[in-house]
Structures are given as structure tokens and as C-alpha cells.
Amino acid sequence: MDQTLYPVNISPEFLLYAERNTLFELFQKCISSLLVDRPNDPITYLIDFLKKDADVPRVIILGPPASGRHTIGKLLQKKLNAVLIEAADLLHNIPSKFKDKLPPKPTIHNIPSTLWAQLFEERVKDFECVRRGWILVDFPNNREQALALQGHGIAPRYVVCLEAPDNVLIERAAGKRIDPKTKDIYHITFHVPSSREIQDRLITPEDNSEKAMHLRLKEYRRVKDCYKPVLRTINADQPLNDIFTQIYSYASKKERSIALHTPRIVILGPTGSGRKTVATQISRKYDVPIVSIPTLLKQQIVSKTPLGASIKPYLDRQTLVPDSLLTQIIKDRLNQKDCTTKGWVMIGFPRTREQAESLARTPVMAPTRVFFLDIPLDIALERLTNRALDPVTGDRFHTHERPPSTHNIKQRLAQHPTDDEESVQKRYQTYSVYYDELQDFYSPQGAIHVAADQDAYTVFEAVEAGIVNQLHKE
Question: Which SUPFAM superfamilies match (predicted)?
Fold first, then answer.
């Protein structure tokens, strides 16, 4: 790294190493933990911190009374194998060092917010919570409590907010019952226990009157504002299984990284699938250079380079250029500054599994996204055999999609020699021969298939979504 130049030129290998090992996220977690906990010995603290599993779930389930947050909490606990923390349980197991700070008859409502935050801080530092993660239910109940938790470094990765119309919640609260023995929650209409013994011992919770519900709902609405960046609102007025499925999907999803990544995109597809069109759209919107292999080969020949002289006989005979020559040309292009700093979008390579493997072996050439533009042969034939070129202006026209505006233009249109039906079928079949082996190689890496027999804008939207969204690999 040359420190005499500004801006400092960072080696592309370093950037690839940082992406591959998620160094940005690692530094972010370390710094945020140091600022929250402020340990006396930062080095020892960081060593211990890095030994822990930082990806365990940390979830807060918010919701107005009768929204089903306790039921969802128990279901989520079983699914994520996390520790369920409820304010009522914490109240019955208060550490001795905090007992002298409690009011004479402590309840959920008369304990100060700062003391609650200390109690929860002590609980989440417990070994089981650190190892398995935690799910916090029934707290915070107001904005003051939420801010107190944040002030003590209790920062959830996911906050779920259950919402429903007030009349639905009041109706639910009126029929809510609790088993004092197991703490399980039932409802006299929607969830009646099958055992007569359980039915007989059910009790009605306190403060479930309509007036009390309205007051608690008003206070609850203010809590959500404290967790906007990680908040997901779920409609609680639907079947329980649907609610839980949505919450589990959110709580088990990996956090979106805000680190800067260099896009390295490969677009595969048969002739007529619109690879060049998609690549051009990506390049224009994200300022990413296009690496077109046919164009690179022509540039080598025109520039009369030694590599150009080596590949010219193959192109003259219309045979495949050896992989060793192709790899060298591609590597030289991808090591240029625009590709190492901005990324790249590649078309025309790889064509075989061997080429895909060689691309993956070299870090600077390994793609981060691979797209297959799938299109039937009949659509490819219709697109290519019906297009023509105006030799005067260089404009492209299509018999159906973009017909010429005047008779004079129509008269001088000419078809490209490689756009006849036989040539198109031959190119399509050449791609199809290696399609299965390319798909087998890239599918475990999260390759994305896009139906390319749609309009160009729809295809680009699908590709763009695949670029910006998190990749799900097998």
C-alpha cells in the first residue's frame, strides 16, 4: 500500500479478504460492544467477546394487551432454542444484590425503569442467554422503560410489533384466562383447554377492563418509536400459525449488512435472452464496468497484442479459444483499477463448467452473483430473426416490437448474417449443451434464475432485486 499517494490505493486482494471474512461487520460489533459496556480492560474484553457466538437471537416481542405476544414468545422459544425472559418471572427471581432497591411490595408497575433495566441487564449476561440468545416478552411497556433498556446496552437485533384493531384486542382481553399452575394462556372462545381440571383452575388476569385496556393501548403506542430501525409490524388479527410463520421468518433472517461490497456479476443465458441489455442497464445505474468477453477478444486483435495474435486463428476458424488464453485476458481486465474499485458485470463467460471453476479459483475473478436468463428457443428465434439494422443510422428495428417509421427506412434495412434461423438455433444449442453442468456448479452458490421472456424492464427489476437483496445459498 503506497502511503505517499492520496487517495490511498488499497490492494484488491485486501478488499476481497475483507468481504469474504465480513471484517466490516466484525469491527462494527466489536466497537459497538466496547462503547456500550465500557470495560476497564478492552483487550481482554474483546478476546472474550470474540469467543462468544454473536449471531444468537436477540428478540423483543411488543404488543398491546391481548395481542398474543406471550403465546408467540413461547412458540418462538421452542423454535429458536433461545431463553424466554418475561417480566413476571424476573420479578420472582430477583438477585439478592437488587432486593434492597425494591419497593415494599414490588409489582411490574411500581419498579423504577432504571432498576428494571439493571435487572434485565443482569439476566441477559447470564451464560445461557449469552450462549443461546434471548426473547424478551411483556417489556418494555412504555417509552421510559425502552430508553432505560437502551441506556444499559440491551439492544435487540429484531423487534416484532403485534398490531390489531382496538375492538379486537378488547374482545380478546375479556375472554383471556391463565392457568396459575403452568402459566399457560387460554381463551374462553378461541382456545379452550381440553381438560376439565385445567378449565376449573383458570383465573382471569387483573386490569383487563375496557377502561384499563384503553389506557394501556395509548401508552404502548409510544414504545414502538424507540425501535424503528429494527421494527417489524405484524397483523395480529389473523390465525396464530400465520402470525408465527411471519415472525419466525423475520427473526431467523440474517441481519442485512451495511458494509460496502464490490459487485462481481456474471450473466449467463442463450442467444436472444438479453444479456447485453441487462448488463448495460446495470452499468448505467450503478456505474459498474461491463466485461464483454467477445469485445475483449476483438480489442486484443485490433490492438495487435501477443495474446491477440494467439487467439486470432481460433476466431478466424470460428472455434473455441483455449481456456488458458481466455483466463489470462480476463484476469488482466479484472485487475484494472475500474474493476477492482467498482466491480464488474460479465457476459460471454463462462461457457463450460471448466471455465466456471477457473473463474472461481482466482479470488479477484470469483463472482458474487450469477444470473441465468432463461428463455425458450421459439422466443429467441422470434426476437432475433425479426430484427434488422439500418446501415445508414445504425439503428436497430424489429418487425413486431419496433417497426421502422417510414417506407424508406424499411427498404434499406438489412438482417445481420448471424440472425438467420439456422445460426440462431446453432448458438442456442451450443449454450444448451453446457447448461446443465453450469447450473449444477452455480446452484449451490445461490445462482438466480430469471424468466427472460418478459419485457426488458421487468427482467432488469428481477436481476436488480437479486443484486441488492441478501443471497440465500443452499
Answer: Microbial and mitochondrial ADK, insert 'zinc finger' domain, P-loop containing nucleoside triphosphate hydrolases
DSSP symbol at 414: B
**Beta strands 231-235 and 264-268: pairing type?**
unpaired
How far apart CA 471 and CA 261 sit, in angstroms, is 13
Q: Work out the burial of residue 423: count CB atoms within 10 Å of its CB; fewer than 13 is exposed, 13-18 middle, 19 or more buried.
A: middle
Spatial separation of the C-alpha atoms in residues 389 and 446, rounded to whole Å:
38
CA–CA distances in Å: residue 409 to residues 387, 399, 402, 414, 419: 13, 12, 12, 10, 19
Provide the grid cell at 288. 459498474
Residue pair 36/124 in contact (Cβ under 8 Å)? The answer is: no
Chunked mean pLDDT (size 10), the chain, 474 residues: 51 71 81 81 86 79 81 91 88 83 81 89 86 88 86 87 76 73 74 80 69 64 79 87 90 68 89 90 91 89 88 83 87 86 90 90 83 91 80 76 78 75 87 91 90 90 85 50
Query: CA-CA distance, 274 to 258, in Å (whole number)?
Result: 31
Cell numbers for 145, please give them: 422503560
**Within 13 Å and on the Cβ side, how many CA atoms surround 127?**
0
d(C-alpha 343, C-alpha 347), whole Å: 14
By C-alpha distance, which of 71, 138, 34, 98 is closest to 146?
Answer: 138
- Quick count: other Cβ atoms within 10 Å of Cβ 461? 14
Cell of 405: 417509421
Burial of 386 (0-12, 13-18, 19+ CB in 10 A): middle
Q: How far apart are CA 16 and CA 142, in angstroms?
A: 45
Contact 471, 369 (CB under 8 A): yes
* Region for 272 from its dihedrals, namely left if φ exceeds 0, alpha if ψ lies in -120 to 50, beta otherwise: left
- Give the position of cell 423454535: 79
**Domains of the chain with bracketed CATH:** 56-251 (3.40.50.300), 264-468 (3.40.50.300)
| Interatomic CA distance for residues 85 and 74, integer angstroms | 10
Q: Is 365:330 a contact under the CB 8 Å cutoff?
A: yes
Give me the residues paired with residue 265 across strands: 345, 369
Separation between Cα atoms, residue 28 and residue 188, nearest integer Å: 49
Tell me if 73 sits within 8 A of 137, measured CB to CB. yes
What region does 305 belong to: left with phi over 0, alpha with psi -120 to 50, or beta? beta
Rg (CA), the chain: 31
CA 119 to chain centre: 34
Q: d(Cα 23, Cα 317) in Å, to the nearest integer? A: 48
